[in-house]
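Technical annex, item 7. During the second reporting period the consortium partners agreed on a shared format for inverse folding records so that results from different sites could be compared directly. Each record opens with the tokenized structure and is followed by the designed sequence. A conforming record, contributed by the partner at site C, is shown below for reference.
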């Protein structure tokens, strides 16, 4: 196989892992205004994170991410920057990895390699992904202190990060931190499908 054919093959494999999900998708999912399911998961070091509506006075941003997905990896620096910028404003960031083939050890190393300032939790058997209706990586769920989903969708509108015209998550956070509703509470998601245990990705 020559270099050109190899490059085409790699590109085709990468594209085959991508799925664009529109708001008209018929799969049931958590919608803005709904109560977010509580959960407890551990990261690769055994530290536990619990989403508990009681006692959380700020906002929580949950991002379903992957170690392999090119779409998710394209956002690594932007996710780290978001945590750096908003953690001082009482916004908690947490990553969740629900992909069957990505081990907790691999997830931990990936988080360290990319200097995430937030924990990345391993969702065995995609229990939390199923509860939230998460479909792709990266996918965002922004929850307020009362446990209500206030924004669901993408981080921004450009996976490559070279021509961003809508910083959707930042806009939602700024509005909510200012005491207002997010101007857009749900955006179209895009990325790699979550590789579930049951193969229903």
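Designed sequence (site C submission):
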């Amino acid at each position: 196989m020559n270099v050109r054919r190899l490059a085409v093959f790699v590109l085709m494999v990468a594209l085959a892992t991508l799925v664009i999900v529109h708001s008209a998708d018929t799969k049931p999912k958590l919608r803005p205004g709904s109560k977010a399911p509580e959960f407890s998961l551990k990261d690769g070091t055994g530290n536990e994170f619990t989403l508990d509506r009681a006692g959380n006075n700020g906002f929580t941003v949950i991002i379903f991410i992957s170690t392999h997905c090119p779409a998710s990896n394209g956002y690594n620096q932007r996710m780290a920057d978001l945590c750096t910028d908003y953690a001082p404003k009482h916004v908690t960031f947490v990553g969740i990895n629900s992909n069957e083939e990505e081990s907790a050890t691999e997830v931990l190393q990936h988080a360290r390699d990319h200097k995430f300032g937030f924990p990345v939790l391993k969702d065995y058997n995609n229990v939390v992904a199923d509860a939230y209706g998460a479909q792709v990586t990266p996918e965002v769920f922004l929850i307020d202190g009362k446990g209500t989903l206030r924004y669901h969708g993408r981080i921004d509108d450009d996976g490559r990060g070279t021509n961003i015209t809508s910083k959707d998550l930042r806009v939602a956070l700024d509005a909510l931190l200012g005491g207002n509703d997010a101007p857009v509470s749900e955006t179209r998601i895009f990325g790699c499908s979550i590789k579930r245990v049951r193969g229903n990705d």
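Helices lie at 3-16, 70-73, 76-86, 104-113, 127-132, 168-177. The CA atoms of residues 25 and 67 lie 25 Å apart. All partners now use this format for quarterly exchanges.
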